[in-house]
Amino acid sequence: KNAALLFLVALAVATSPAWALRCHVCSSTTNCKQPQTCPASSRYCKTMTTVEPLAGNLVKKDCADSCTSDYSQHGQVSSGSGFTQCCQGDLCNEKLSSAAPARTLLSSATLGLALTLGLLILMVPSL
């Protein structure tokens, strides 16, 4: 029984790097997609779109420790202005615009760890 418990603890530790958020990190004039694992401190995926009518819009996607969405585009959009979208969840910055508010999504790593902890709790009373 102790071996099984040690195995589950080792499994939980081994999968902990999967907790790192994954975001698309790229810069382009179109909707670019380039998945990367973010630093452990990153909690958001960020998409910044800069409006450049003559040169074409610039889309920059990145990982961010903190982020504030900015949807304040009223009336005419001047050249060089832009907006920022923030989201939480693996590769949530894949699309350029979303009407839905940012939501925290359960990743497969989170579900896997929850399952491991659940099994651990079930096994402990039987020791």
Automatic annotation (TrEMBL):
UniProt-annotated location(s): Cell membrane
PANTHER family from the UniProt entry: LYMPHOCYTE ANTIGEN 6D (PTHR16982:SF2)
Domain UPAR/Ly6: 21-106
SMART domains: LU
GO cellular component assignments: cell surface; plasma membrane
Any one Pfam family match given in the protein's UniProt record, by short name: Toxin_TOLIP
BP GO annotations: lymphocyte differentiation; response to stilbenoid
Natural source organism: Jaculus jaculus (Lesser Egyptian jerboa)
Keyword Hydrolase carried by entry: no
Main location: membrane
Membrane spanning stretches: 105-124
InterPro entries in the cross-refs: CD59_antigen_CS (IPR018363), LY6_UPA_recep-like (IPR016054), Ly6D (IPR042339), Snake_toxin-like_sf (IPR045860), Toxin/TOLIP (IPR035076)
Protein name (database record): Lymphocyte antigen 6 family member D
Domain of life according to the entry: Eukaryota
Signal peptide positions on this chain: 1-20
Alphabetized UniProt keyword annotations: Cell membrane, Glycoprotein, Membrane, Signal, Transmembrane, Transmembrane helix
PROSITE patterns in the cross-refs: LY6_UPAR (PS00983)
Keyword Signal: yes
